[in-house]
Amino acid sequence: MTSLPLIPVDPDAPGARRAAMPPQHLADLDLAGRKALVTELGEPAFRAGQVSTHYFGRLVRDPALMTDLPAASRERLADQLLPRLLNPVRELACDEGATRKALWRLHDGSLVESVLMGYPDRITVCISSQAGCGMACPFCATGQAGLTRNLSTAEIVDQAVYLAGVAASGVVAGSPPRLSHVVFMGMGEPLANYNRVVAAIRRLVAPAPEGLGLSQRHITVSTVGLVPAIHRLASEDLSVTLALSLHAPDDELRDELVPVNQRWKVSEVLDAAWAYAARTGRRVSIEYAMIKDVNDQPWRADLLGRLLAGKLAHVNLIPLNPTPGSRWDASPKPVEREFVRRLRDAGVSTTVRDTRGREIDGACGQLAAAEDTGTDPAGESSA
């Protein structure tokens, strides 16, 4: 059995270990905080609005392009409000350009990933909330790498702003040019970086120039099931979707696949999810990776159906994207179809996630792992 990870549900609590964080960025602050900082620099407060309009409203991240700012002020404001947070290491595209994955190196050398996915009716970005992950799920590349540190609010937001700029450039053919959806399903456990993730959500949904102006209902936050944090999120007065990474309906298997289950069992996690749904009115997304001969048995489909029947929930079955050298593999398509049939027969809304980005190491953590080991996305040495 995999050992239970240590979980700082509130990493900003007294005594929590603090890693070296990046310099402060305007996305770490609300608009009032930005104005206060600008006035401390001897600039008029309205300069904060100008810089924020460039960053959030026009998706401009390069201070040199902010020509409405006086040249004498631009460098000072850029140093204090727009330090470089994400340094591109590699960007890959597939699905005829509709899927684009970015690998970033942070100020301390940590690697994180984010993905843009274009559809006919929307642009979705998947962003990371931690460098690595401490949840130790054995079938996940990020979980096997371990946790390096939490990301700052601005490091989280900057991924979305960058990819919103990519979308706005029009390079994603067949999709609208405006970012509409953000999912916290990249590297890390979002609710283990609770305060910064919630602050990032507030930046994403605040109207420009304070934020990116996205709909709360178009934000999805994934969790392996940190029960106290789920209850806390329900009290935030946010209408975001909760995605619960369940992966097994029974405690015996989930203890192995999702080690945090050793602390909060399936029944406790689902009770917290139903409480979230009742408080917010939002349907919970149940994430379930289909793993060959591990969690894809018909009886587990039936058990899952009984647990979810009549609840405000939708099952999102995920064909596993195996990591190189892993003993875990995706369920065969006939097995997957039977699993879907049984859930639907139980009255549970079920879909199978669109498989995107397999040829560019689309699964969370694979591109970072390839960079660390000196291999390219095809698994060959990059030396």
Description:
The chain is α/β, with parallel strands linked by helices. The protein has two domains: 56 residues, DNA polymerase, domain 1 (Orthogonal Bundle); 287 residues, Aldolase class I (TIM Barrel, Alpha-Beta Barrel), CATH 3.20.20.70. Helices cover 33% and strands 18% of the residues. The protein is built from twelve helices and twelve strands. The chain has a ten-stranded mixed sheet with strand order 1-2-3-4-7-8-9-10-11-12. Strands 5-6 form a two-stranded antiparallel sheet. Helix 1 packs across helix 2, helix 5 packs parallel to helix 6 and helix 10 runs parallel beside helix 11. The C terminus is likely disordered.
Beta-strand level of the residues, as a percent range? Answer: 15-25%
Rg calc: 21 Å
How far do the termini sit from each other?
37 Å
Helix content: 25-40%
N-to-C series of helices and strands: HHHEEEEEHEHEHEHEHHEHEHEH
The level-1 CATH class of the largest domain:
Alpha Beta
Number of domains: 2
Structural class: alpha/beta
